[in-house]
Design goal:
With about 110 residues, the chain is an alpha+beta fold. It has helices at about 35-45, 75-80, 85-110, and strands spanning about 10, 15-25, 25-30, 50-55, 60, 65-70.
Length: about 110
């Protein structure tokens, strides 16, 4: 553990095959074992600070058997799983400021003509 009481990784000397990781309020392990996932869920519950349990496929665990894609991971999940076209990727990534600029330009052009 570091001086803030958070750990970057943890393993037991008795069983070095399972490693637990913690970073930016995310817990994950190098295994998909249901017992380990259950332990991580219990740890996140005790921490009660928004820590979530992540899987290798960007899923977040609600329980051992129930997962979802967290809002913070949706764009990268869809890109990595080829669920959006390049154009949609650009829209999702830059749409927040590109659309107002385009709208402003179109309005300006309309008033000039």
């Amino acid at each position: 553990m570091d001086n803030k009481g958070q750990f970057s990784f943890f393993y037991s000397p008795e069983d070095e095959n399972i490693v637990l990781f913690y970073k930016n309020n995310e817990l994950w392990a190098n295994t998909t074992d249901d017992n380990v996932i259950a332990i991580l869920l219990a740890i996140s519950s005790v921490l009660n600070d928004g820590t979530r349990v992540r899987g290798d496929n960007l899923e977040t665990f609600k329980s051992v058997s129930e997962t979802y894609i967290h809002e913070d991971d949706k764009l990268i999940y869809f890109i990595e799983n080829n669920k959006v076209s390049k154009l949609k990727e650009i829209f999702y990534r830059y749409g927040g400021f590109v659309i107002p600029i385009l709208f402003g330009l179109l309005t300006w052009i309309y008033h000039i003509l």
